[in-house]
Amino acid sequence: MKSFFRYISLLFVLLFSVELFAVKRFYSENSVLSQGKWVKISVSEEGVYQLTAKELSNMGFSNPRQVHLHGYGGELLDENFTTASYVDDLPEIPTYWDESSQKLVFYLRGTIGFKPNTNAKTKVLTPLFFEENYTSNNSYYFLTENSAKPLRYAKEEDADFDVEESTVEDIYKYQSITIKKFDETNLLGSGRNWYGEIYEPNQRKTYTLFFKNMIVGDTASFFCQVLSSANIATNFNIYTDLGNSDYQKCTVSALSNGAQVSTSTLQGVELQSNSSSVSFDLKYSCTQKSGRGYVDYIIGTANSYLDANTVNFIRRIKSLDYEYSRFHFGKAKTNDVFLDVSDVEHIYVPEVSFSGDSAFVVVRNAVTPNLQRFVNFSPSNVYPSPSVVGDVKNQNLHAMKDFEYVIITPTEF
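RE: above sequence
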């Protein structure tokens, strides 16, 4: 389990040289946690969340409008501490204060990040691959209150621009991604990789993948990483609701060179849906009684509508053929909020215009990162509240001097 790593991992923060951290942009003199009231909150997945004025008051904050949000979230941070964009203290994250409903609304990241898919076999199904935080099941953020003006969602300074139609890519749908990651057992008793969904020989299991705003009647595709501990070659077969005769299989090689498990990637067939989900079966075909099969992850993709009435998580590789991309959202209201969240430390509102119940969101491909991420929400809608972990005592590790590294170990050591 992931908790295993929280208790046995050793964290070494090495100072490569005195000159490196002499540059103040890499190291804050004092932590933001060194003063003021702080409350720790957590979420288990990426999403739009809210905290009402009453909830903030119950946490001990006297003026909900002056509450600030800080944190990185639960996605893996860059291990390169020398980059110019690296911030060693908790950065402030922008929020939206809805005066009519007296609540704070904000976007938070979960523990699953995304990166370009470099696997030639599977990137035809999705250009993106996920990156899991293997040390935690939750993302943690921090709330505080002070007299400074809280950071709010705002347009980028140069967001107003004239667009020539020949340079615009019009987008009416997006590729929705669903991920099932299984973390039940560690076959090596060590390392980062955890697997799940244990199969006995010839066992068959059913899986259902859900997609928000999936285009009914369209097709979905999937692929999964499967493993086997048998000393002989085994197969994983895919069965769809089209019948048992319609299946695809992949062969997992026999163990070799003292290995404890053998892996293979199973590329799924296209599945047609008449709802917001698709289902399929996996069967582990093995003639060795002691053999066991495992599933590491399943990734499904499907085309979804751009519906402004629900939260859309749009993730894609930016277009290289067009200077601009224009997203066409239906069921929109003029107070809807659209965000470019490609860079968690620079979330901003792109250029948005409205016509009837449609919203048109324009982004400049030249200035956004290669991996684009967008999200939308309606302030009047109700969103889940993050879990409250509790108050955080003031602390200031940044003020410590004359140390070269920090070692964190469990008490059992």
